[in-house]
Structures are given as C-alpha cells and as structure tokens.
Amino acid sequence: MNKPHGHRTYFRSFLLHFRPRNVPERTLRLSLTWGLGGIALVLVFLLFGTGLMLKFVYEPFPDRAYESILFLNNKVPFGQLVRNIHWLSANGLVLVVFLHLLRVFYTGAFTAPRQLNWIIGLAAFAAAVLSNYTGYLLPWDQISYWAITISTSMLDYLPGVGGSIKEWMLGGTEPGPGTLVNFYAIHTAILPALLLIALPFHFWRIRKAKGLVIPRSAEEDPGIQAEMVETMPHLIVREVAMAVLVLAVILVIAMLFNAPLSEQANPGLSPNPTKAPWYFVGIQEMLMHFHPIFAILVIPMSLLIGLLSIPYIKYETESSGIWFVSGKGLKLAMFAAVVATLGTVGGVLLNEFVVASGPIGPPDMVNTGLLPFVSILGFCTGFYFLLKKSFKANSNEAIQALFTLLTTAFVVLTVIGIWFRGTGMQLMWVG
Amino acid sequence: MKKETYSRRSFLTKLWIALGAVAFAELVAVVISFFKPRKTEPTAAERDAVVIAGAVDSFEPGTVSAFVQGKFYLARLDDGGFLAMSRNCTHLSCSVPWVSKEHKFICPCHSSEFDITGEVINPPAPRALDLYPITIENDILSVDTSKLRKRSVFEPTQVVYVKKT
Q1: Which residue in A267, A292, A425 is closest to B109 by CB distance?
Q2: Tens digits of per-residue pLDDT, A84-142?
Q3: Residue among B88, B111, B148 minimizing CB distance to A424
Q4: What architecture is domain B44-158?
Q5: Taking the domain A27-220+227-262, which CATH number applies?
Q6: Does B132 contact A at CB distance below 8 Å?
Q7: How many CB pairs under 8 A join A and B?
Q8: Predicted confidence (pLDDT) per residue in A364-389, tens digit
Q9: pTM score, two decimals?
Q10: Long-range contacts of A195-202 (CB under 8 A, 24+ apart)
Q11: Does A379 touch chain B (CB under 8 A)?
Q12: Domain extents for chain B?
C-alpha cells in the first residue's frame, strides 16, 4: 500500500520524527488555537533568518552602530526590507505570544499533564520580551537610547542589589560601549540559544500530553475520545497555509511601512516625552502612581507568582478544553474586564487630578506604596469572594475572573501609557 | 572487608563531588572576574574626570552654567556659593535642562522640577540632584566628576564658598 516513491516518502518519514501520525480531528479547529502558537513559531524562524543577515552588517559600537543602520537602510540591497521584517516579527512575536497565553488560559489547557508546559511557555515568553528589549537598544538612536536609560534606571529603585544589577547590565553607570556589547551578546547569542532549548521542550511536552487540549462543550466528558485523522495532510496543510498567510502579511506590511529610526543617540538631550519600550510602558505607568519599590518589584513579582501558580492551584471542576470554563464563566470574565477597565481609568484620573496635587516631596512609602497595594489586594480578595458567594461561581470561574481583572488592568495601563501620555508625560486625549 | 570497600567508594564519591564543587566555584569566579575589568579600567572620560570650570568671578550669582564635557551643571547661588550638580534626573536618569526663564530645572521625561540648589520642587523625582565635589584654588574652580555624591535634600553645608582671605 505505502509503496516507496521518491522524495514524498522521505518527507513523510522525516515528518514522523517530530509530528504524530494521527491527530484528534477537533484540535484542528481554528476556533481552538487561532493558530497562535504556529504563528509565533513562524515569526521566530523569520527572526532567526533576518537576524543572521543583520549580523553581517551591524556593528555594536556607540560610534558605529547608528551609521551601520543607515548603511543597512540606504546601501545594502533589501537592507531596509530585512530590517523591517525583523522589527515587525519581533514586535508581532511579543503580541502573538501574549495572545497565545490568553488562549491557553481561557481554554484551560494548563492542567495536568500540561502544568510544566505552562511554565516553559512563560519562560519562552520572557525570552521573547527580553530579546525584544535587548534588540531595542541596538540602533543607538534617540528613542532606543532614552528608552533603555529610563527602563534600566527603574532598577535603581530595587533596594540593595538594584544599583549593581543596573551597572552590570550597562557595563558602566550610563548606556555606553559596555551596554551595547552586553545587549548585543545577550540578543544574538544567549536568548536565541535559550529559545532553541525552550521551544523544542515546549513542543515535546505537547506530544507527551497526546496533542493539544481537545475542545469540548461543558456537557461532554473530560476523557472524551476524539476522532483521529492523519497528520499528513490534515494538520500539515493547515499549518502551511497559516505560515504562508503570516509570511504574506508580514512581507506586505514590511514593504509599506519602515521600522522606526530617530536621530542618533544624544546623551545630553532627552526627547520629550521619553517612554520605555511599549511592553514596559504599563510598568512605567505604574511608576507614576505607586512608590517605585511597589511599581517595579512588589506588584510585578506578585503578578509573576500568580502566573506561575495558575496550573498548580486546586480547582473544583475539570474545565480543560472548554472555552471560559462555562457560559457563566464567560459572563463573569466580561464583568471583571469591565470592572478593571473602569477601575483602572478611574484610578489613574483620580490620582492625576485629585491626589497628585497634594504635598510635594519624595514618594511616601506608606501612602503611595503599602496603602494602595493593600487596598488592591483587598479589592481582589473581596472581588473573588463576591463572585463565589453572591454569584455562586466555582473556583475555576472565580480565578478566571480574577486573572481577567488583573490582565485587563495591566493592558489598560499600557494603553494609557502608549496613547494617552504626551509631552512631559501629561495625560491627554489620544496622541 | 566489604564494609571497607564500601566506605572507600563513598569517600571517592564524596571527593568527586567536592572537587566538582570546587571546579564549579572556580568557573563562577572566572566568569565574574571576566566581567570586572570593563568597570574598573579607567576610560578616557574618567582620566579627565577633574574639569577645570574657570575663574570664580566668571560666574554671575544666580546663574547656572552647563558643562557638556563633564555632564554637570555649575550653579552659583545668589549668596555667591557654588554647587556642581549631575544633569541626570534622580527619577529615571533623563537629562535635565536648566530653564533660565523659569529659573528651574525641568525634566522633559516626567516633569520633575528642581530649583537652583537642585532641591525637588515637583515630583516624581525622589531626591535632590546628585552633587560633584568642588575645589577652589587661587580663585580657579574645578569639579571632580568621578565622585558622584547622592543626597536626599538640599542642605546649606553642601554649598562651596570662596575662602575669604
């Protein structure tokens, strides 16, 4: 039956080294994955390819870096296009991996045996963000120089070790030759190596879990036996189609819009306003409202611990494969999103126009740190028990709503920081 | 006999582990020290750390002069005293320009404001601008930009005066 005939057979047997022979038919639905993991992988391939090309042109020295980017843009054939693709894929990756995380969370695809894979995924997410961050500095233009200056200066507020970590990262007291060499080495060697280890591990854990989580309705049994179809062609054709689509979209956008490049870095002149890279703008926004120790240490660490513990919490029901746990879960999550949006916007406005006009002086540890933190903690706890008592939510639904609440708050802070802060970081109407 | 072999084997195992730990510690020490010289080796800028600002009389009271090379501001207060201050904001290290029209430093990044003594008059900056030590010899004023001194608030003892002779 399976008569060997040339390259097709070789391809099939090669394929079977890293894909299963059969996959559950239901996991092929676009409404399960939205292809997000696959899109992320395509972007990683694009980043490795274009990154290797850029490595032959870029020079990581303060007096040469900006010039080498100009040379790349203006003299190297397709140089601008390659840089655009790299820039787009890098920013797209952070966004896509974040959406992928949301998808995995809301389909409950993190319970046993996928617990460890949630952690590996978070590590890969961190590697993607750090890759983006270290690459941000390399063009050595005004935007990148000052974004790195203020985001590394945030470390100064970590008690004790912060200053030394900052100096180690910068290879000095301010961004200079040491910084560029550090960031370049981390960007082009350490993080790509980490990704090369983390990603295969991530995919192997999916195999060990017998494929993706099987989507089901709340009435169906968790141990549902799905109908199997052959990987080739059913899965492979879909994956290739999605990959080609992603390539086309990236290529078209890269041809239409150029990656940003401002004037060469000038250590004596801060642009107004100066913002951190967009994925850290939420933290910068928190810095405007909270004591620094809380804005950059206590709150982010609490959120990280929360994220890491998600798969290890004891839940009342087995909800893997069901979008938003249940119909009620979806309603409560939407309720939480609305509460978080109104609460965050209200809080920012209140702090800006009512509280901030108070006494002048160094930030107060109790009033701007401990007090708001404890009240947020109290609010979250109250919210959780409100859902459990008054809305009769089970723990799956309540924790999902809490996750939605905090994620929405962070997204809203990021949006405010990116689009609603203008000159002197004053609040303003869309900029 | 049997017990003896066993203890020798466990001794060797422990020895291996200890040697491995030593080797690992050495490796860590090598990696750490590898990153050190970049920090301690004086750069060209550090060798020229002492900036000769000029004659005392060339600075009017109540003015601020910027020194691009040393990356600091020299403020002469109304009473004739001097302060040399870092141009970096104590909030997130943005470069703070002196706005002479409004007679204060205004940070473009997050609108922190400092008066002529470097004292915070508008947050979010948490501390007064950092200081550099000033020496005055024969009416010539020089600033050592290698010795950054952090302070929380302005105090009159920080001001340097010309010694009356």
Answers
A1: A425
A2: 999 999 999 999 999 999 999 999 999 989 999 999 999 999 999 999 999 999 999 99
A3: B111
A4: 3-layer Sandwich (2.102)
A5: 1.20.810.10
A6: no
A7: 76
A8: 677 777 888 898 999 999 999 999 99
A9: 0.86
A10: A195/A44, A195/A124, A195/A127, A195/A128, A195/A131, A198/A120, A198/A123, A198/A124, A198/A127, A199/A41, A199/A44, A199/A124, A201/A120, A202/A117, A202/A120, A202/A121, A202/A124
A11: no
A12: 2-40, 44-158
